[in-house]
């Protein structure tokens, strides 16, 4: 049996890793409790722009996971930081009311006039339609920057996956001929740096745990952090075999990552995984 070595700190994806809908995945409560007990810093991260950090913490706490607001980093947190540090003028949000309200509360000016829009923010939006597409298209064609909260292709729900922000980005890039200039959430280096700074740990002592080959694993592989892919979410072993990014570890779920306790079977680790 091969063991996953214990790390000084852990960064977890939420959906598909710790929980699935209202279901806590096996071992998640025990793992979080052990990390608290051992005083090992951890963070949870989400590209979901609809849920504030405090709401993520409340939801996880209600499910029995000892997660606090300060443990949560979201794509919205990263977006607000970026817009405050580098203000550009009015933004146009392709997103749902919680994101629009978050920007309003932060004092970020917004507009739906293509002649005034300085920046188009693309996010997960189940109300995305031709009118929103056209407003963004015209603004970008007139010089507005295109940025995004995340580039996930799909979003997991209790009823299966649904389209996420990746398709919206593709529509805007294809129609305008202008590529997205910045993605604020996973797998961006700035998102990771913000989490590491809050944990006060060097990247060599941290393990990123997630279920997505398109975000969680590349974030570690491209920025020098070990990764563990859990198969409790959207990724299968067949998809892993053809992936350009290979994790340091492959596990059925987070129960196999409990520090110093649970062994990973010999075939559960990917040899020569990308860093």
From TrEMBL:
Keywords of the record: Hydrolase
InterPro entries reported in the protein's UniProt record: HAD-like_sf, HAD-SF_hydro_IIA, HAD_sf
GO molecular function: phosphatase activity
Keyword Phosphoprotein: no
Any one of the GO CC terms: cytoplasm
Annotated region (Disordered), positions in chain: 256-275
Superkingdom as given in the UniProt entry: Bacteria
Parts forming coiled coils: none
Pfam families: Hydrolase_6, Hydrolase_like
PANTHER family attached to this UniProt entry: 4-NITROPHENYLPHOSPHATASE-RELATED (PTHR19288), HALOACID DEHALOGENASE-LIKE HYDROLASE DOMAIN-CONTAINING PROTEIN 2 (PTHR19288:SF46)
Annotated protein name in UniProt: HAD-IIA family hydrolase
Organism of provenance: Egibacter rhizosphaerae
């Amino acid at each position: 049996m091969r063991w996953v070595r214990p790390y000084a700190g852990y960064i977890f994806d939420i959906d598909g890793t710790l929980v699935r809908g209202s279901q806590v995945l096996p071992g998640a409560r025990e793992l979080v409790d052990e990390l608290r007990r051992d005083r090992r810093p951890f963070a949870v991260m989400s590209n979901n722009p609809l849920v504030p950090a405090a709401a993520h913490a409340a939801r996880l706490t209600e499910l029995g996971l000892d997660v606090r607001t300060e443990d949560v980093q979201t794509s919205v947190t990263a977006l607000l930081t970026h817009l405050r540090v580098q203000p550009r003028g009015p933004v146009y949000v392709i997103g749902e009311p919680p994101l629009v309200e978050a920007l309003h509360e932060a004092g970020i000016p917004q507009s739906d006039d293509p002649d005034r829009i300085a920046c188009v923010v693309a996010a997960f939006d189940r109300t995305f339609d031709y009118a929103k597409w056209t407003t963004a298209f015209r603004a970008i064609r007139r010089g507005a920057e295109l940025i995004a909260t995340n580039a996930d292709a799909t979003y997991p729900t209790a009823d299966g996956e649904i389209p996420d922000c990746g398709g919206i980005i593709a529509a805007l890039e294809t129609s305008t001929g202008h590529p997205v200039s910045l993605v604020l959430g996973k797998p961006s280096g700035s998102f990771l740096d913000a989490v590491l700074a809050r944990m006060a740990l060097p990247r060599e002592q941290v393990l990123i745990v997630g279920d997505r080959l398109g975000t969680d694993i590349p974030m570690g592989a491209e920025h020098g952090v070990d990764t563990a892919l859990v198969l409790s979410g959207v990724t299968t072993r067949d998809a892993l075999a053809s992936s350009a990014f290979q994790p340091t570890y492959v596990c059925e779920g987070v129960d196999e990552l409990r520090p110093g306790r649970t062994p990973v079977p010999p075939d559960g680790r990917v040899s020569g995984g990308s860093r």
